[in-house]
Amino acid sequence: MIEELDQSLAKPPYSVPQAARDHTLLSGLNRLTRLHYERCLPYRRIIDGYWGGQTHSGDLEAVPYLPVSIFKSQLLQSVPDSEVRVTLTSSGTTGQAVSRIRLDSASSTIQQRALANSLMHVLGKQRLPMLVIDTDAVFKDPKLMSARGAGVLGIMRYGRDHVFALRPDLEADYDAVAAFLDSLEGRPFFIFGFTFMVWVKFYELFRNRGLDLSNAVLIHSGGWKKLAERAVSNEEFRAAFREAFGLTRIHNFYGMVEQIGTIFLEGPGGLLFPPNFADVIIRDARTFKPAPMGHTGIVQLLSLLPHSYPGHSVLTEDLGVIESINDHEGEWAGKGIRILGRLPRSELRGCSDVIGMAA
Amino acid sequence: MITLWAAERRTVDTAEFGELIESMADAHAAPLAAELVDIVAHISTEILRTPILRTAPQFVALGYWMRAAAIRRIVAEGRAAVPDGNVLAPRGLALHLPPANVDTIFVYSWVLSLLAGNSNVVRLPAKVSPPTEALLAIIVDALAGGRISSKNLFCTYPYGGEVEQRISPLFDLRIIWGGDEKVALVNKVPIRPDGLSIGFPDRQSVALISLEAYDRSTAEERDELAGRLFNDAYWFDQMGCSSPRLLAWIGTAVNRETLARDLYSRLQSVIERKGYEVAPSVAVAKLLVTNELLAEGAGHRGEWYSSELQVVHTAEPAAALKRGPGGGFFLECTLGDLRDVRLLVSRKLQTITHFGFDIDQLMELARGVAGIGAYRIVPVGQALDFNPTWDGVPLLSHMTRQIVVKAN
């Protein structure tokens, strides 16, 4: 593990203010750029061909980045095949290319430790009993094993005595949930699920069951697109859970498989905050130049975690905005961002149309 | 739903549509007749004086292409191509399947078939742009004026089902514009046994620039070249088959990079002056292709001039040519000599535009690539100009038949 990551993890989670963070990250990211440059030939070709061979940058904004979709078409790894322990894939609808992320055992450990560090910030140091808003079939049945299953398994490691709120047919398992809550006798616990599932398969199915979840911490992720289609915003989501279950400690998080282990966790004001070892740059959607606070643009993610593949600086296809910097010193340091969805797709014209049949 | 574009648009069912097309089967006109030329010329005049059309470059180009003098030249060439003693006859009933996204192709295809004396069914995309709508109004009007509305049907109908099965066997000629998959899919349903189905599938195009000529040229000439390159590449978001996606610099000048960058900066100025912009997702898509080519080793250097102009230098141009995200993404390569252009040529290559070569060099180039690929060699700035010989196919002669007549 590079020393800058070690230093970041040694500090209380989400505590490093921006200036100190810039300093550590720059040094760490430069180190990672060099490391991947030396060990990953396709990455070296990109750095040489597009970034003038620049493996040392004077500031964070100058650190070379990869478009995140490149992990869909290229297998980029900085460890020999023999050391690859796991290949993670992104979720994607059938037929779509998925990202392939290669981890060796050291990176896998780093990733788990970093994620534990982040979750500890809202869950505390003890592992809590955990209610999963999903079915265990999602990872038990190899046919169903997917990015969702891998995501559930990845988070389950941070809870104990797991109970699943849904049956394999994704219908509510009311008895299991009731028994779980009875067994707790008022002690704190942890709920995890994907945002859409949590709404459709938990809130909507359990809302009238008189459940008291005031001792719970709900962590959810996966994006708002499907809920936005149902006109459910984060505010409405939070208000609904408060009213129906007395549940107020809710933390959404933003992250992607290409930076596995790095989660932007929801803090005050519904904003998402990067962990100590990560940061975000918003780039103007037209010029790709760094944009100031308050300016909506393309989200670039920086993280010290990717050691086995060159994913330490990626340009996403998401739009976002920085709404605060260091406004919550100590508890939630650094930038507070809002994710505003995907870059709108746009069709170019052209005579080579495949859609001509339906049009 | 089947919609017929006429003075009053109306919808019909499959049965009525089938009968309507059947009734057109023998309604041919004499090929290259003066009345047909007049109708086309009239449409040209209307295009060039309709505000929404005369301000859009692709419609202006269309208007000029079909003005009286130009059409008379096509007619004269058509006549000259018929051996003495043969009588030109229409091929019969033609079906035109233009691409959904290029809003003028259907007119080029239809005009030639009209001149050939054929009856025509033109399938339009479900959604057409406001200028195309204006253009269709002009055409419908002109057809009514020329009393040939019943021989020319502009319509919208769902493809790939019952309607296609019903009408396809009626056609003598089918012109398919679109991707490889579309052409293959359409060809699954046969037309008449003696019918001719012509596909214009996926093609790619390149521009050749002589380093020596560029080096010699003045600032004005270079700006003009950049302007013409812009028109070739950007009118259809660089997604037209004829839009260049690769710039091959020909020669051995040592200041190659300086010259190339000079052209790209001038092109960037044109982009800014014309206010051409792509959506951020398009810029990201181009950045992705740049990175992919570099990662694979197919590209050696990528340069970002703006969201609208990205250039990747490649030493494997033939392989890299397959990638065309459009919207201002150019591959570039250097070739020592025009003879090396063969390396770029395949069946998929359509148009070669050129700057700085003389006719002898170009004829030699044409003979060198004959049989391998490349179907047009025209100056930079004329990539999108429609030629009655398209993809190597002389359309007028394919759209007609000839009757051999011998008296004794």
Keywords:
heterodimer, A: 359 residues, alpha/beta, Rossmann fold, 2 domains, five-stranded mixed sheet, 14 strands, globular, B: 408 residues, Aldehyde Dehydrogenase, Chain A, domain 1, seven-stranded mixed sheet, 16 helices
What does this entry look like structurally?
The complex is a heterodimer of chains A (359) and B (408). Chain A is α/β, with parallel strands linked by helices and 359 residues long. Chain A has 2 domains: 192 residues, ANL, N-terminal domain (Rossmann fold); 141 residues, Rossmann fold, CATH 3.40.50. Chain A is 33% helix and 23% strand. A 7-stranded mixed β-sheet of chain A has the order 5-4-6-7-8-9-10, with helices on both faces. In chain A, strands 1, 11, 12, 13 and 14 form a 5-stranded mixed β-sheet that branches. In chain A, helix 1 packs antiparallel against helix 2. The radius of gyration of chain A is 21 Å and the shape is globular. With 408 residues, chain B is of the alpha/beta class. Chain B folds into 2 domains: 215 residues, Aldehyde Dehydrogenase, Chain A, domain 1 (3-Layer(aba) Sandwich), CATH 3.40.605; 186 residues, Aldehyde Dehydrogenase, Chain A, domain 2 (3-Layer(aba) Sandwich). Helices cover 42% and strands 23% of the residues of chain B. Chain B contains 16 helices and 18 strands. In chain B, the strands form 4 sheets. In chain B, strands 2-1-6-5-4-7-8 form a 7-stranded mixed β-sheet, sandwiched between helices. Chain B is globular and about 65 Å long. The termini of chain B are far apart. Classes of the chains: A alpha/beta (359), B alpha/beta (408).
C-alpha Rg of chain B, in Å?
23 Å
Overall domain count of chain B = 2
Q: What helical percentage do the residues of chain B reach?
A: 40-55%
Structural class assignment of chain A: alpha/beta
Global geometry of chain B? globular
CATH superfamily of the largest domain in chain A: ANL, N-terminal domain
Mean pLDDT of chain A: 92
Alpha-beta content class of chain B: alpha/beta
What is the CATH class name of the largest domain in chain B?
Answer: Alpha Beta
Total E-strand runs of chain A: 14
State the helix count of chain B: 16
Poorly predicted ranges of chain A: 352-359
The largest sheet of chain A is: 7 strands, mixed
Q: What is the strand tally of chain B?
A: 18
Kindly report the spatial arrangement of strands forming the biggest sheet of chain A.
Answer: 5-4-6-7-8-9-10
